[in-house]
C-alpha cells in the first residue's frame, strides 16, 4: 500500500518477547529498510527478551501493574453489568489472584462464573488452583507466635493437596506484605521469603526447604520482638 507523502504505515507486534533471536534479527533488518515509511510498535511482557539492537531503535514505554483498587473497581463493574452472583470475599479473591493484571482478573472472573455460576472465594481459588491465602495467613500467624510445628502443618497440607513449592512461596510473599504485624517484622519475613524464592527458582523446592523457611520466619519474628 502506497501512502501519501508524510504519512506512515503502523505495524503493531504483540507478544514480541516470544519471538526467537533469529526472528528478531530479521525484524531488525526490516525496521532498518522501511524506517522512512513505517513505524513499528512492539508490545512485550518482558523487555529483557528483546534484543538490544531493536531496543536501541525504540522509545521504551513501561507500564506498571494496576493497583488492587483499580482492579476491584473494574471487576465490580463487570459483575454488575453481567448480573453475576458474587460475594465480597469472592471479588477480593479475584483481585488477589490477578496480581495487578486486569486481563488475568477478567479471565479468572469469567472462568469462575462459567464453571460455578457464583463468584465466591472458594470457587475462585479452585479455578485458579492456588493455595488459599487464609491458610497461608494462618501459617504466617503461627510463625509470629514462634509455633513452627503448627505452621508446618499448613505447609504439609498444601503439599499434600499437590501445590508446588513455587506456588506456595509466591503466595506466602503476597500474603506477607499485608500481614498484621509491625513493619520491621514484615520486612524481616519478606527478606526470608525472598531468599527462599531464589532457592526454589534454582530447583530446590523440597519440603525441607519450606520447613527451613518456616524456622527462619519464626526466628525472624522472635528477633523483631
From TrEMBL:
GO terms for molecular function: ATP binding; DNA binding; DNA clamp loader activity. One of its GO terms (cellular component) is nucleus. GO terms for biological process: DNA repair; DNA-templated DNA replication. Keywords: ATP-binding, DNA replication, Nucleotide-binding. InterPro entries: DNA_pol3_clamp-load_cplx_C (IPR008921), DNA_Rep/Repair_Clamp_Loader (IPR050238), P-loop_NTPase (IPR027417), Rep_factorC_C (IPR013748), RFC_lid (IPR047854). The keyword Iron-sulfur does not apply. This is SFRICE_013514. The lineage of its organism: Eukaryota, Metazoa, Ecdysozoa, Arthropoda, Hexapoda.
